[in-house]
């Protein structure tokens, strides 16, 4: 039997601006990464998303990003390791307040966007993020790009980790995600997304844009909640996995 967690980035609306289809997607996933107000989200959205996740018995994680609402946290910034540490403590602490107030328990932390990709490539940033998470709660999982510094530095810090793969993104031959600036970065076909996920789980491989396989570990599969095909991806992936002998369950189960 194969096991995998399905996660989705959520709570990314801000004020009057709506982002994603959280309520419809929640029944198909097992873990929610909730924005903490820096790249997206606001206090009311955080509270409502926590409530929705608990109502659907979906595990909750913090999704801290760079302080860049206009760029949705997807633009690189020149930050220090100390900056990364402070940003993560601040944002995880904010979401933790809402989770505790609603009677829930936080399961994990997953950095967002540019912060995630920068930390995947830079061990000093990954180490700072891991230290921040450990000091908040050493029982939290840190979710990071499979094979990246986020995983290795978290393990060095004594954290439990989950290696993440992506249903809706293409890969480069070094295991990194294709930059969003490139036209072939996103997967828009339900069938292609499903087949990529199944192969990563069952074979431990992903076909890169260079036409070669890259060995990959798939503990949790991400679906970007802001993607145009997020709902259909979540539904098709969940249903297909269960039909093909893959047990979908939260990372803490």
TrEMBL record:
Q: What class of enzyme is it?
A: hydrolase
**Is the keyword Transmembrane in the record?**
no
Q: Which organism is it from?
A: Brevibacillus invocatus
On the tree of life, the source organism's domain of life is Bacteria
| Stored Gene3D superfamilies | Glycoside hydrolase/deacetylase (3.20.20.370)
Summary of the function given for this chain in its UniProt record: Catalyzes the cleavage of 5-oxoproline to form L-glutamate coupled to the hydrolysis of ATP to ADP and inorganic phosphate.
Q: Which NCBIfam families match?
A: PRK05406.1-2 (NF003813), PRK05406.1-3 (NF003814), PRK05406.1-5 (NF003816)
Assembly, in brief, is:
Forms a complex composed of PxpA, PxpB and PxpC.
Give its E.C. classification number. Answer: 3.5.2.9
Q: Which SUPFAM superfamilies match?
A: Glycoside hydrolase/deacetylase
Keyword annotations: ATP-binding, Hydrolase, Nucleotide-binding
Any Gene Ontology biological process? carbohydrate metabolic process
Tell me the protein's name.
Answer: 5-oxoprolinase subunit A
Which molecular-function annotations from GO does this UniProt entry contain? 5-oxoprolinase (ATP-hydrolyzing) activity; ATP binding
Which reaction(s) does the protein catalyse, per the Swiss-Prot or TrEMBL entry?
5-oxo-L-proline + ATP + 2 H2O = L-glutamate + ADP + phosphate + H(+)
Family from the record: Belongs to the LamB/PxpA family.
